[in-house]
User: Fold this.
Amino acid sequence: MVTPEQLADRALALADECGRPDLHRRLTQARGRHAAPGVRVLVLGEPKQGKSSLVNALTGVPVCPVADDVATLVPTVVRNGDAPRATLVRAVGPPSGEPGADVATERVPVPVETVAARVTGPGAERIVQAEVELPRRLLAGGLELVDTAGVGGLGVAHALTTLDLLPTADAVVFVSDASQEFTAPEMTLLEQATALCPTVVCVLTKTDACPDWRRIADLDRGHLAARGLDAPLFAVSSTLALLAVQARDRELHEESGLAPLVTHLQDEVAGRAATLARRSLVHDLTAVTGHLSLALRSELRSLEDPASREALLAELDEARTAVDEQRRRSSRWQQVLGDGVTDLMADIDHDLRDRSRVVVREAEEVIAARDPGPAWPEITAWLDQRIAAAVADSYVWAEQRSRWLAEQVVEQVTRDGGGSVPALEVGAAGDALDTLVDLPGMDDGSLTLRERTLIGLRGSYTGVLMTGLVTSLAGLAIINPFSLAAGVVLGRKAYNDDAKQRRQRRESEARTAVRRHLDEVVFQVGKHLKDRLRTVQRTLRDLVTDTTDETARTLADAVKAAQRAAKEATADHEARIRVLRARLDRLDRLVADVARLDRTPVPTP
Assistant:
């Protein structure tokens, strides 16, 4: 059976013989995409739900950090390799002050057994990513597991970094432990993942520690059905799976529930990704062979049938008109793209500001209800989670609108006769909030005994003195029971007034800090999302322009070939006809093999 790589090589050879470097470049890119078998699976969820333990259980090696007091902050990518090896991608040099700017990195090889300690120990804040290669049957089909930072409890930057990986994933494994059913934030995160990634799998972990996990699994399936989320749910015990690997106990491995999840990942995730990769390659091969066939058949017709020269000249005029019309029509999709980008940028800015105003109002209500001094750590943690949720919603919305805009542009190109456009691969933008400054600290309002005494004495001084002077007219001393009682009352009032003023000052400082922080979030996230939109714009522009140029080049080559055939000597006709027929024969066989490949099912990894 002919492999996809062999078909691509045959098409490359024909493109070279026909003098089409543009088609050669397109085929080279398509072959590179098909040759990279990576199927990225993002392990996603809130902190401390068992994501790292699940990755360790799937690979059989503790490459991800697992501890009660340790949370994942650095993504760990686990892929197939000939031998166990690990690499840390670490940022070098001073951090850039430009949000979204490229960060210089270096790759540091480390022993596999030290990865978990290095991504949580000193210097972990400079590590961008950990990469591990293991010779595992699960990973041999191109499966790539990515252990991510938890979303919902580690601040805005970590949440956005994880969500930024979603568009690059072929599938998402959403992890939640069996101690409770899906929470509202988890359901929101699930909907965001479903909106950005076509394949989502839910995994219920820690079944060995939760005897009531079956009831929780039924409740979770009910939540998924109520939200209209078509995601299968698997219940597993990572602890039992690791013990089964260590003890080589097949029964214990089956009891862990990991086998059905592994089967699903191999069949539905890796198999589906391979099908999509083949479909994309077939699409490119079909388009390229169509371009080559048009030029070859036009020249061969003019050589074999000189009597039809008048008709051929008329067709040449139509071809020239078609080229000009194609160029003219390109302004339509460019207008759709430009207007869409302008509208979307304005919508993104409005959406972010609207969400930030909602968060500010909620924060002011919290500050008014509680003294922000002693409650500031709790308010800061709540604000981080609330901002993370708002940023995630805005991120998902912008991603969906970007895809909608891409569909509109492609539809306009197709309507104008521009042919099909290759599949879009926008990719992931950089982190948005790396340079975001944390909320400043706040005075907790606590006073020492000395400070409280001084405040009371300052307030009681006037009361003691005035009351003592009045009572001295009656022959009493300045310091007497009446003046002391007045001093105590006024001192207590002064202390309460001072406490009230200090709380009002703390509330004012807290409101100012929240507003400044939200302004910074809007600025950084807005820049990040607009950069992503510009990436979409450039990607669409380049893809559509390349497609239009290919069509115009094909028509121009057909015109030149027909003109050349009309001017060539009769003696050269026979030799040229033999060359063209040989190329067309190879091209027809290639087209037939591509069609046969498209009908052949992709083997399951």
User: Anything to note?
Assistant: Residues 309 and 338 are 44 Å apart (CA to CA). DSSP finds 16 helices and nine strands in the chain. Residues 449-506 form one domain. Residues 481-567 form the longest helix (87 residues).
